[in-house]
Design goal:
CATH class of chain B: Mainly Alpha
Order of helices and strands of chain A: HHHHHHHHHHHHHHHH
Distance between the termini of chain A: 12 Å
CATH architecture of chain B: Orthogonal Bundle
Largest sheet of chain A: none
Structural class of chain A: mainly alpha
Shape of chain B: globular
Number of strands of chain A: 0
Strand content of chain A: under 5%
Order of helices and strands of chain B: HEEHHHHEEH
CATH superfamily of chain A: Cytochrome c oxidase-like, subunit I domain
CATH architecture of chain A: Up-down Bundle
Number of domains of chain A: 1
Number of helices of chain B: 6
Low-confidence stretches of chain B: 213-219
Largest interface: A-B, 84 and 73 residues
Strand content of chain B: 5-15%
Oligomer: heterotrimer
Strand order of the largest sheet of chain B: 1-2
CATH superfamily of chain B: Cytochrome c-like domain
Radius of gyration of chain B: 23 Å
Helix content of chain B: 25-40%
Shape of chain A: globular
Number of strands of chain B: 4
Number of helices of chain A: 16
CATH class of chain A: Mainly Alpha
Low-confidence stretches of chain A: 474-492
Chains: A mainly alpha (492), B mainly alpha (219), C mainly alpha (70)
Chain lengths: 492, 219, 70
């Protein structure tokens, strides 16, 4: 069993990397248990909170009198609470959990100084909670994806500082001898996110930039949170789990190098496509559109890699829960990104900008891609850190089918509705209230899909909790293919 | 791990590249964008928000109006913003340089509000619309904001600020509905939203030629 | 006046692209790009070798089958 250097030794530049021994997979998994479990539990709780706000917001949009008298649930606040709880609550907590577990595994050494991560998790979740309560109380900043009030953001920064410190140590003492593609994505994501968030806080809240430069900063930030934080973590997971579940190496490692660098280069210019037609310099919009088109390169490259690895093994989808969710996510990534490139075209933007189509697209990215990949990752990770099986295969199936059908209905309904809305809005002969009335059937479909998705989340949460609570010995079946060395009962 | 520094350098440069291009270069070039002083009116445009309207903008942010309403008029020929009466001209960058927080918005579940102050001048209309959008706009999906109003017992004369709600919203006899200061501020803000000044750069706006005639671009 | 900013932006782009090209050249010289397939295999080991699937529905563990490689 690898011994851990002290925190001081980890930071001391003169410490040799040989302080740490290459560890067994089961040792590594055991060492990740407490922090990963903490972030996963937080993530699942936030998922339920975010889903509740989602349903409320969705109903309000076709039935505005629903809970209409309650000020703290007014649509503008409920929708914002939904966005922030699913982004900074569910998605970031899940991202942290999966990233830390992956980094430990890929660096082939036990996770050290998990205390740093626990402190980070506490600060992060307290910060987000205060932020959501603040939003409901009316203190939202009204800056998209940055609505958490300024009194809560210092907590998020403290949390991230601890994460950053831990990440540095882990990379320093990594023992794999080779940086796997997932590690580049994770390293990049962990570095990019605080830069994005800091610039946004400084130039939008602390020292607001001049005029519509604020809009440029806002969308450079928000789109890059999706493209340079969530996407790399989702791709890192897909790149690890698809080959790992199948037992087959990724199709082309060279393509993964190309995919990573082209994503790094192009993605961060694309964000301004949220401002097409807006009061900002035309050259920056054109650059953003060009970058959005160029994104087809990394997207297609990643798609080829994932798809060709799966070819010949689609039957594996029947027996692996992880693979179902991850492949659904990976396919959605390809589709939603290509749609995104098309949306950046000025003629297309003229129609779909400002409509529900954008909402459909955003959910296809954050849910059909990122959230599904997170679900798949959790289905793989949890048994290995708890040394138990998932209690119910039925609940897993219910989860998968409800959310995959649900999100598909969501995206299709709002995409069609959005295109219709955009075309009608560009036709001044149609009164505005008529355009609105025509969107209602699609908004109702979205609420239906929301109910399906909620059922799926409840099934997941029940299975998750049951698994945590059931005693290890009470299993009827053997654990999923990993060893259970008795000495691994001790957890840091 | 000998590749790590190289990868790190690449990761740093790629984001630095877009930050320089999108954020920094524009922050610098906007520095030369100044308000215009109009000699005839002896005012500078864009104007600063008057006090009550500035408070109203905070209410706008607090209630999340931005999530359904945009504040940017697209140019004629790109969408139907002008034909819907949302603005005489497109919004330009100079319109926003005096705003502490720019609320461009990205959704039009409801109409664009950049020129709502020019389009809808009636305070009473706004009050009724905020109380329950169904009163002025049947079939609207906008949220009602009854909590921006208070029910007062009429003591002596009724308040001049009270709003007259139609049935079935009318208060019972002896009571009146009065907007709270937040509602007054919000309406003041909405009434302040009008970008009607023609800056030099807006005079070169593309104008669609009338079908059948050859019309030059306006100069 | 704005030519200054365009000039700076151009210089920065040249620097960035230049360093990217140099980095590519450097890594090629150092042999970083040669044995790429090794990276793809790095996630497997004796405990979880190539050819062994590692995930199942609870209770549905299958006997070892080797997935088709192409």
């Amino acid at each position: 069993m690898a011994t851990a250097p002290s925190l001081v030794a980890s930071f001391d530049p003169t410490s040799s990397p040989d302080l740490v021994k290459r560890a067994e997979l089961s040792e590594i998994d055991a060492s990740t248990k407490i922090p990963v479990l903490f972030f996963l539990c937080s993530a699942v709780l936030w998922l339920l909170v975010g889903t509740a706000f989602a349903l409320i917001s969705s109903f309000k949009l076709h039935t505005p009198s629903f809970l209409g008298d309650i000020e703290w649930l007014t649509f503008g606040r409920a929708r914002t609470a939904h966005l922030n709880s699913v982004i900074y609550g569910w998605s970031v907590n899940a991202a942290f959990a999966v990233a830390f577990w992956l980094m430990a595994r890929l660096s082939r050494s036990v996770l050290r100084h998990s205390g740093l991560l626990m402190i980070a998790g506490a600060f992060w979740n307290i910060g987000v909670t205060i932020g959501i309560v603040g939003i409901l109380a009316g203190d939202s900043t009204s800056i998209e994806w940055l609505e958490i009030p300024p009194y809560a953001t210092p907590l998020l920064f403290v949390a991230y500082a601890f994460v950053g410190a831990w990440a540095l140590i882990t990379f320093r003492f990594g023992k794999s001898g080779h940086i796997y593609v997932s590690q580049w994505y994770l390293l990049a994501a962990l570095f990019w996110f605080p830069w994005l968030y800091s610039v946004a806080q400084i130039m939008l809240i602390l020292e607001p930039a001049r005029g519509t430069v604020q809009a440029l900063v806002n969308w450079w930030f928000a789109h890059n949170v999706l493209g340079l934080w969530f996407t790399p973590i989702g791709l890192a997971a897909a790149y690890y789990f698809i080959p790992k579940v199948l037992g087959k190496p990724i199709h082309s490692y060279y393509l993964s190098v190309l995919g990573f660098w082209s994503l790094a280069l192009f993605y961060n210019w694309a964000g301004v496509h949220h401002l097409i037609g807006g009061p900002v310099p035309a050259w920056v919009i054109s650059a953003g559109i060009a970058a959005s088109f160029m994104m087809a390169i990394p997207v297609v490259v990643v798609g080829i890699n994932h798809h060709m690895t799966m070819v010949g093994n689609f039957s594996a989808l029947k027996y692996s829960p992880t693979l179902r969710f991850i492949v659904f996510g990976a396919v959605s990534y390809t589709i939603t990104s290509l749609i995104g490139s098309v949306m950046a075209d000025r003629q297309v933007s003229e129609v779909v900008h400002f409509t529900h189509f954008t909402v459909a697209h955003a959910h296809q990215g954050m849910y059909a891609f990122f959230t599904m990949v997170m679900f798949g990752s959790i289905y793989y990770i949890l048994p290995r850190i708890l040394l138990k099986e998932w209690p119910s295969a039925m609940l897993i199936s219910v989860h998968f089918w409800t959310v995959s059908v649900g999100i598909t209905v969501y995206v299709v309904a709002l995409s069609i509705g959005g295109i219709k809305q955009g075309l009608e809005m560009n036709n001044a002969d149609i009164p505005f209230l008529q355009v609105v009335a025509n969107t209602i059937p699609y908004l109702l479909s979205r609420s239906m899909s929301g109910i399906l998705i909620t059922i799926g989340h409840l099934a997941f949460a029940v299975n998750f909790t049951w698994m945590l609570l059931r005693p290890r010995a009470a299993q009827k079946t053997a654990p999923t293919l990993f060893r259970t060395p008795p000495e691994m009962e001790v957890v840091r | 791990m000998n590749r790590a520094p190289l990868i790190f350098l690449g990761i740093f440069f790629t984001l630095a590249f877009s930050w320089t291009g999108i954020v920094l270069s524009n922050q610098l070039s906007y520095g030369k964008l100044q308000p215009i002083t109009d000699e005839t009116e002896n005012k500078s445009y864009p104007e600063l928000l008057p006090g009550l309207a500035a408070q109203g903008k905070l209410v706008y942010q607090d209630l999340g109006c931005i999530y359904c309403h945009s504040q940017q008029v697209r140019r004629p020929g790109f969408g139907a913003d002008d034909k819907r009466g949302w603005g005489d001209r497109q919004s330009v960058a100079r319109d926003y340089i005096r705003e502490g927080r720019v609320l461009l918005g990205t959704m039009r579940t409801g109409p664009d509000l950049r020129n709502i102050g020019a389009r809808q001048t009636s305070r009473d209309w706004h009050m009724l619309h905020l109380y329950d959008p169904q009163i002025t706009s049947k079939g609207s999906i906008m949220a009602p904001f009854p909590f921006l109003f208070e029910k007062h017992k009429i003591v002596g004369q009724s308040s001049p600020k009270a709003i007259k709600l139609p049935a079935p919203y009318t208060a019972e006899a002896g009571y009146e509905i009065v907007p709270t200061p937040r509602a007054e501020a919000l309406v003041a803000y909405l009434q302040s939203l009008k970008d009607t000044y023609a800056y030099p750069e807006t005079k070169n706006v593309f104008v669609e030629p009338i079908a059948g005639t050859k019309k030059e671009n306006q100069k | 006046m704005e030519w200054v900013f365009y000039g700076i932006a151009f210089l920065v782009s040249v620097l960035v692209t230049g360093s990217a090209v140099y980095a590519l050249y450097w890594s090629s010289k150092k042999g970083q790009l040669r044995d790429l397939e090794q990276g793809a295999l790095s996630i497997f080991d004796e405990q979880e070798p190539v050819g062994q699937p590692t995930d199942f529905f609870p209770g549905k563990r299958r006997s070892r089958t080797v997935p088709k490689t192409h």
